[in-house]
Write a structure and sequence with these properties.
- This protein has 2 domains: 10-119, 2-Layer Sandwich (Enolase-like, domain 1), CATH 3.30.390.10; 130-320, Enolase-like C-terminal domain (TIM Barrel).
- Helix content is 36%, strand content 19%.
- It contains 13 helices and 14 strands.
- The protein has helices at 10-18, 67-82, 90-93, 100-118, 122-126, 145-154, 171-178, 194-203, 232-240, 249-252, 255-262, 280-292, 309-313, and strands spanning 21-22, 26-34, 44-53, 56-62, 88-89, 130-133, 137-139, 161-164, 183-187, 208-210, 223-225, 244-247, 270-272, 317-320.
- It has a 7-stranded parallel β-sheet. Strands 2-3-4 form a 3-stranded antiparallel β-sheet. Strands 1-5 form a two-stranded antiparallel sheet.
- Helix 7 crosses helix 8 and helix 9 (232-240) packs parallel to helix 11 (255-262).
- The protein is globular and about 65 Å long.
Length: 331
Amino acid sequence: MVRLSPRCTPGELARVLGALEVQVSQLHVERRDVALPDYPGGPRPSSVVHVSGAGATGRGEHVAFTDAEHHEFVEAMSNWLRARSGPARVDSAVGVAVSRYGRAALEAALIDLGLRQAGLGLHDLTGVREATLRFVVSLGANPDPLRAIAQVRAEGFTGDLKIDVDPAWNDATLVALAGDRSIAIFDFKGRGSPTQATRLAALSGRALFEDPPIEFVHPRGLVSRDATLPDAAAVEAARARGEAVNLKAPRMGGPLEVLRGLDHAGEGTAYIGGMFEVSVGRVQARQLAALYCPSGPNDLAPNRDQSTAQERENCPMLIRHDQPGFGGSES
């Protein structure tokens, strides 16, 4: 059995997971649409790829945002299976014939399968049986953010928040939001003006500014990057500029690249974000976050329609690593 030290680096874990041998004999993609109250534009399309072999099954979630992309993923997975012959390593089995989101889903499923076929969980590799995870509840851009925050509080969540910046907010709104110490991240998504960002920075204290306008320079350096991080090299460049990093497996092409990216992030400078996962992808992201950035403002809160009030209020969350596979037995 391979066992790493309890203090193994994320890069070391990536190498061990990538070297797992997998035997795939069957594959199917489960398609469904999930209604989420905070997902824009109707039900969230969702696909979960199931890869099976040697009496085990691994799963990975495809998070593309359109039905067309999900249909393309189903076809790509059929083609991928037809091209398989014999066992292969996780890090070479995926190939390049899928999109970045598709690669992330398949790679996660192969890691899950490889661990199960080897009779391992992440605890067996890292020595970490369980860990607590801090998460934030994310709020989309809203012309009345104070009302949105009040609603979250009325639902019982008392933890920290991440809020998308609306370029139309007036100064009174900026003042009120800056005074809310529970807001851990203002997510600009590259929108808004440098003037708005400068005003908010002058008012706010410790909140990170994620993807602020390109011309903006935070006077205290509290900037993080998300959309511009497709790989570990981009993470390294962001850290060289002194920026924090929000890592997402779908955007980076898979969990292994997230782990490689985490290798470049010092303690307290990284967190892991979600992309409206509604299945095993969210569980897998939480496992990585709990191992390597448990106290960061991880955007991995339970989905509002898929969790109890107690689960949403329970921050930090206890994440187990002693279950088999990647993602354990949660759904």
